[in-house]
Each structure stands twice: as C-alpha cells, then as structure tokens.
Amino acid sequence: MRWATVILLISVVGMSAQEEETPKPPPMFQLLRFNEDYSRLADPNVHIDAFDPLKYLRLRADDPTWYLSFGGELRERVELISNPSFGLSGPRDGYLLQRITLEADLHLSDRLRFYVEGISGLIWGEEGSPPPVQDDPTNLQFAFVDVVPWLTEDLKLTVRFGRFGMSLGSGRLVATRAAPNIPFKFDGTELLYEWEGWQALAFLTRPDEEQTDRFDGEDYNSIFWGAYLTHWLDSGKKDGFDLYYLGLARKNSVYASGEADQHRHSVGIRSFGELAGWDWNAEGIVQFGSFGNDQIFAWTGSVDAGYSWKDKKWKPRLGVKFDVASGDRNPADGRQETFDPLFFKSGYFNDASLLRPSNIIDIHPSLSFEPASRMEMSGGVDVFWRYSSQDAIYDPPGSIEVPVTNNRSLYLGTALDVNVSWRLQRHMLLSSSYVYFFTDNYVHSAGGGGVGFFSTTLQLEF
C-alpha cells in the first residue's frame, strides 16, 4: 500500500500544476500504455504536468527522437459477489485486487524502439485458490522491439518482435482483459503498416499462459495469427470500417458437445461512425474450420447504437446494444456451431463479467449522462436468452458455467447495471458498478440462482 500513498501524493502535485496550465494537456492514458506518444514533450515549453520530466528524458541534445519515457499504474479494486457462477461455485465471495505496473520506453531515433513493462497482481480474501490471472506477484507483461524499415511523411512500416498486447476494433475478439489483474499478452511478431486514412496489421503469435509461481511462458497448445485492416473516412478517426481475418489453432478445446483439437478461422467486418448526434458500431463475424471430426460453422452479429444530446445539460445518451452469438443446435450432427469470441474484452456485457458471448442473444437498452465535469453515469437493463437449448452457457475463460439440462427454456435472465466513472484528475480515476442478474427456470434447473455484484476501483497512473 506504500505505492498508493506515494503515487497519490505525486498525483495531487500534478493536479495543482495542471490547474495553472494554459498549454494543451497531454493525451489521456490508454489501456495499452505502449500506444501513448510523448514525443511532443521534446518542447519543454509544453510541460504542464508534474510527471512530464519522467515522460520525456532527452538522450541526445541535437536529436529529439532519442528519448526515454517512464510510466506506471497502481490499481486497487474491490469486488463483492453473491452467488458467483450463478451459485454453482459457492454462496458468496469478496476480495481486494491490486495491480502495479512499471514501464520503460526507449526510443533510439524514429526507427528503433525498446519497450518493457513489469507487472504485479495480488489478491486478498478470495474463497479458494485464486486463478493466475488474479494472483501473479512478479511477472513480465510486455517486452518488445520495434524496427521501422520504411518511414516517409505519409507511410510507416513497423516490425514488432517480442511480447505485446493487442486491442483490435471494438475488442469483440481481441482485447486487453482489463478487469482481472493480468491482461492478455502474446509472444510473436507483428507488422504494422500506416498510411493516410488507413492502418493494416498482421501477426503470428502464441498466447501466453498465466502462471503464479514463475514467469509466464507461451501456451504451446495454441497458435494465433491474423490480419486486420482499418480505413477511417474522416480526419478525426470517428467514422470508418474494419475488415479482418483471424486464425486460431488450439488443442483440447472444450464445448458442451465434447473436447477436441480445433482449427478456427474468423472473418469479420465492422462499421462505426457518428452523424448528427447518432453513433453506431455494427459488426458481423463468420467462423469456419474443424473441431475434431466436426466441421465448424458459427457466427455472431452485434449492433451498438445511440443518440446523444451533446448540447443539453448533462449530455444524455440513449442507446441500445443487440448481440447474437450462435450455439450448437445438435451435438451429434457433425457440425460445431458454438461461436468462439477468442480473446474478447472483459466486462463485455457488464462489469460483473459473468458470461462469455457464446450461445447468447441479448438486448441492452441504456441511458448515460455526465452530471459533472469528467464524470459519467450510466445504467441499463440487459435481457438474455440462449441461442440454442442444446448448448451450455460459458464463463469468460471458456469453461462450461451452466450445463445443458432437461429444461428447454431459452430465456436465461435479466441483468440490471448501474455504473459511475469519475476522472478526479488526469492521474486518478475512480469507478464503481453494481449488477444484479435475475435468473429463470433454466439456471434454476441446474441448481443455480441470481447473482449480485459490486465493484469499486481506484486507478493511479503516470
């Protein structure tokens, strides 16, 4: 907890400095911290934050592209759960999560970069043995080298080697797993090509296997590869579309229909944008391949749209999200139809992270508003059905959470969620959420029941 005191004191100093500034403030922190660019701090006249001297340390007096940047995070998160896993794994649970990261980003010109990030994730109070994604005292989260063999005013090709994270599009298939202590990471190679209005990337990796008692190694049961293309239709990068292909080979994959090796290919398209107060994010994905002797054919579709009154007090937004993710309709027909969301973002439906978007249909109307500066409140009602009564409900890691029963009801339940996020100042974010999941006959027939969830999180970043 000493880290919390030290960073809190420095953050307060940073807040005082920021209140007196007039230059443009630096960009906000990102989930993948290595995507932040602090090269603008080469000009000491734009330094307005107490941490700016750490974010840019010039290494060559005559060349601003040679510099070193330091950063980090301390996160304290409390989670309280009644009936975890719908009551199938115990009556209640509550625990404190702590995550600490420290990073160093070394730029030796515009063409060579070294990045390293260490991480510590601890948990106190959980019932039973915590999973490695929550309990990992010391580990290497990211460590990679960027080489830029092609660089012009309009074009840039980056070749990345090592251990890195990825967040593609809206995070429906590849994201950071932010809520648990240890986010996703991959070992391999990535090519990033950027030109005006376009970005393309291709990668070949192995996902890392989280381990509590030693440094994480590669998951030799899995290979993950793909290509992702984004085109923005405006200079602000608010309107555009994505086209992508993702491939996954994984041994001993488990679904309600059985266990086997799978080779799964995902082809997707996404459209996103804003127009006259409206916003939308629509995505469709088809999957094919093999699961043992079965052929894979699975699919999903998602639409997230809303209207914002940005010129009104509190800037309210009324939105609705609709998802369909296929499930297996007949385990004996030689076709595996359960959609696999691969490495999807945590909290996909709500902060409770109870469900994997497989064999699911849901509709989620919501309302959000900003009652104060840098504060957002939101809430909604999410109604869930199974796509197929012959398939199970899965937890976020992919294990069967509620098995197939004799109950053929498709209705799963309804979740109420309330969320508050308050950026106290640049370096401090406070957020809380409450979710209650009302369940119905299908869950009750498996011996489960409703779930209550509460979380509160304090993040200190620099």
Task: Describe, in plain words, how this protein is organized in 3D.
The protein is mainly beta and 462 residues long. Helix content is 6%, strand content 55%. It has helices at residues 2-19, 52-55, 441-445; strands at residues 57-58, 66-82, 92-108, 112-124, 136-151, 155-164, 186-195, 198-209, 217-218, 222-232, 240-255, 258-275, 278-291, 294-308, 317-325, 335-336, 360-372, 375-386, 393-394, 400-402, 411-425, 428-439, 451-461. It has an 18-stranded antiparallel beta barrel. A hairpin with an 8-residue loop joins β14 (294-308) and β15. The longest helix is centred in the N-terminal third of the chain and has 18 residues, at 2-19. The model is unreliable at 1-22 (pLDDT under 50).
Indicate the topology.
Elements: H1 2-19, H2 52-55, E1 57-58, E2 66-82, E3 92-108, E4 112-124, E5 136-151, E6 155-164, E7 186-195, E8 198-209, E9 217-218, E10 222-232, E11 240-255, E12 258-275, E13 278-291, E14 294-308, E15 317-325, E16 335-336, E17 360-372, E18 375-386, E19 393-394, E20 400-402, E21 411-425, E22 428-439, H3 441-445, E23 451-461
Parallel strand pairs: 14-16
Antiparallel strand pairs: 1-2, 2-3, 2-23, 3-4, 4-5, 5-6, 6-7, 7-8, 8-9, 8-10, 10-11, 11-12, 12-13, 13-14, 14-15, 15-17, 17-18, 18-21, 19-20, 21-22, 22-23
